[in-house]
Amino acid sequence: MIHPTFQDILNAHERIRPYVRQTVVIESTIINRLLHGRLFFKCEHQQKAGAFKFRGATNAVFCLSQEESLRGVATHSSGNHAAALAYAAAMRGIKAHIVMPETAPLVKVENVKEMGGHITFCEPTLKAREEVLSKVVKDTGAVFIHPYDDFNVICGQGTAALDMIKDTGELDYVLTPVGGGGLLSGTSIAVKGIYPACKVIGTEPENADDACRSFYSGTLVRPVNPQTIADGLLTSLSELTFSIIKQNVDEIFTVSEMSIKAAMVMLRKHAGILAEPSSAVPMAAIMENREFFEGKRVGVIISGGNIDPGKYDFWDADY
């Protein structure tokens, strides 16, 4: 199994530089004071299509040969990868065929439509997604771009950490959410390529802890009907992302549902960051493990912000 290298991440960074948004890194004086450290938030919720996924999708799309591009691209996704791939495809002037479950969040369906993606809905099961996608690919000849189990997608995701470190300098820890593992994999390669001593930590909900169990058991564990507010982290690791994570990642923390909500509130209240639940998970991990991160320089990738805040009733809660 071939892993991306640090040079592959650098190549991806150069390839997508004309297309991606150079999102800011911000600090919050209040959050730093509350948690007794320095937290640097890489604001990928401000990325095009509203999430880091645009980086990986763009790299994958612009790695296609001319012949491949004429066939268009296809994927199955309930959220951010769908919109990201549709947007990236539009930038190259090619078609994007997106298979989405009927239960996909409306805000994410609308994002795909706005980006010009051709949506085919399916039942909300992995089996249905794969079967419908297979038919779409057969009918259109489109190239399948997996949301995370893809060499070029992983390379693109790693560029967020490169950009963050340019702004922050040396860090003690870098945290990302982990679902399928594309962001954590790419981040780990990028961070270790610059600062080998920096610890890379994955974070996920207790209610969807398959990556954590896989990491500490050494055997890939598949989730069984996980239930969490962090809907973007319901997918399981692939053999490729698991292999990279085992090699490069230092720890994986899990967090409670209440902590995810509290992290969303803290980010919005004290940093002006409207983070979707999945992207608030790293913040929740820091809040649950304050002593571990105390006095440290910590980079946090805010992975996405595609939510309808009116959907949640806890913004004024006192956690």
TrEMBL record:
What highest taxon heads this organism's lineage? Bacteria
Q: Please give the InterPro entries that the UniProt record associates with this protein.
A: TrpB-like_PALP (IPR001926), TrpB-like_PALP_sf (IPR036052)
Cofactor names: pyridoxal 5'-phosphate
A Pfam family of this chain: PALP
Q: Which residues cross the membrane?
A: none
Q: Which organism is it from?
A: Alkalitalea saponilacus
Concerning SUPFAM superfamilies, the annotation shows: Tryptophan synthase beta subunit-like PLP-dependent enzymes
Family per similarity comment? Belongs to the serine/threonine dehydratase family.
**Annotated ranges, domain Tryptophan synthase beta chain-like PALP:** 17-304
Task: Report whether Lyase shows up as a keyword of the record.
Answer: yes
Per the record, the GO terms for biological process are: D-serine biosynthetic process
Q: Name one GO molecular function term.
A: ATP binding
Establish whether keyword Transit peptide is in the entry: no
Q: What keywords were assigned to this record?
A: Lyase, Pyridoxal phosphate
Which protein are we looking at? Threonine dehydratase
